[in-house]
Design a protein that fits this description.
The structure is a homodimer of 284-residue chains. Chain A starts with 7 loop residues before the first strand and ends with a helix. Chain A is built from nine helices and nine strands. The first copy, chain A, is globular, with a radius of gyration of 17 Å. In chain A, 32% of the residues lie in helices and 23% in strands. Chain A has a nine-stranded mixed beta sheet, with helices on both faces. The first copy, chain A, is an alpha/beta fold. Chains A and B meet through strand 1 and helix 9 of A and strand 1 and helix 9 of B.
């Protein structure tokens, strides 16, 4: 163990017979201190367990999902760990949005590996989420290496892209209200043009609708979307994902829910279905 | 309908097939504008439903419970409305703690009717919670007048005291980590000495351990308490409640949970048991 493997527990709360724990550590990938949260179900006191990684949306930290999604009740029953990273590198040494906006920089890492200065020295959330964090946790916590991936909004984009880029690394995949086609929506265009540069060709490898056309692996997708989501038409565009899946025969179960918005009230309403979706793959 | 009955909806989120709604209104009891939240289960679109009133703890607003407790899932299944008021009068015209502390004044109304100036002109949370709010909601929303009462910490004290002082008004009662004997703990002594004055005799009618000795009604109590709660010994004192119940034969199921703290992770872990406890009385 070297210094980069040091985990410092910053909180622990007993919850549904297991433990919600928060840790901070020095990320070698992101070159800053990071905080993340883990829920370990009761089963983890006896054996190793599979883990569902959850990627949160713009402005979130590790706390929003753990506090608001109501996921731990069923995770405890199903014997799933939950791993929730932050949404970007953080801290005084990490550059943020020059205008202080909430949709770029801190809280808005977009789960990619930036190529453009000054972002490329810290904004490598894809590498952090896919490699550094699981490698660290599977060596330090009772996780058995079976991984599922899900997320909301920007984190739904992140889940789709991280899994599609890394066949074999995840057993299950889902998303709630994901940004389906970041190359063609305002949030994505702002982020990609800065993190990846002006050449739109380079954006294709971080866009689920592009990646799905040439995917080596066809993990069945469960995607939920609220029809009263104020970001639906301009930013999220599930119809583009549905078209890409249809064009290549990628299995997609896209559910549209009348009246539901973009909030954690929407997430909480359907998170149990996602946990069951993942458990069916993770526990087999 | 007069002006004091005006409700303005400030948010509405579809959740578990029902609706989370927030309203503001001018409270005649508290002489300020108040915000509260209601969860209406799917059944409320067809019929009137019973309501569980939830009283939150120090520093909370109506939002903490609705966002963090994970109560709406089972409330939807059981057909219970949830009503969550704020924890004190608020606003620029309402005096708060002279030192800006979090355990008195704004966010710390202690669910009593203050008798001392300057508090008595606004701090009448007992009257608001027991009378004004149910009277308003039962005339405006599909609530059938069957009421349960529960709460956490200061709100657990509030639930016990409001129900014990008003026999016949509630069908069911429970609490999580309540302040059981406010007359004899630092939080309660600070609040009571200001809201009610120096005469400790007047405190007795706002102290569950005193009220329970002469109660006219014996609603069975469900009380959960975490054993790793940092406020357990000094502020909460469930053993005093157990003694008062034992002395008068008041039915009490007091459960002590090793490892659990005072947070919403504790509340979430046991809220379903409370919802089922209330549903058994409210739906009969």
């Amino acid at each position: 163990m070297n210094d980069s493997d040091a985990l410092t527990e910053v909180a622990a709360n007993r919850c549904f017979g297991g433990w919600h724990r928060r840790f901070r550590h020095q990320s070698s990938t992101l070159r800053c201190e990071m905080v993340f949260a883990v829920y370990l179900p009761p089963q983890a006191e006896q054996t190793t367990v599979p883990a569902l990684y959850w990627l949160s949306g713009l402005t979130c930290t590790d706390e929003n999902f753990m506090q608001k999604a109501g996921a731990m009740r069923l995770a405890a029953e199903l014997g799933l760990a939950l791993v929730v990273p932050d949404t970007s590198p953080r801290g005084a040494t990490v550059p943020g949005d020059p205008d202080g906006a909430w949709d770029f920089g801190h809280g808005a890492g977009f789960y990619l590996d930036a190529t453009q200065s000054p972002w490329s020295s810290h904004y490598r959330m894809h590498d952090y989420v896919v490699h550094e964090l699981p490698d660290l946790l599977e060596s330090r916590l009772p996780l058995d290496g079976r991984r599922g991936l899900s997320g909301h909004s920007m984190g739904g984009h992140g889940a789709l892209v991280c899994a599609l880029r890394n066949p074999g690394r995840y057993r299950s995949l889902s998303a709630l209200a994901p940004i389906c086609q970041p190359s063609a929506c305002p949030w994505g265009e702002k982020a990609f043009s800065r993190y990846l540069g002006a050449d739109r060709q380079s954006w294709r490898e971080w866009d689920a609708c592009e990646l799905i056309r040439s995917a080596d692996e066809r993990l069945p997708l469960l995607v939920d979307q609220g029809e009263a989501d104020p970001f639906l038409a301009e930013q999220l565009r599930p119809e583009a994902l549905a078209q890409a899946c249809a064009a290549t025969g990628h299995p997609l179960r896209l559910r549209r829910h009348p009246g539901y918005d973009h909030s954690y009230y929407f997430i909480a309403s359907f998170i149990d279905d996602h946990l069951r979706h993942h458990a069916a793959f993770l526990r087999s």
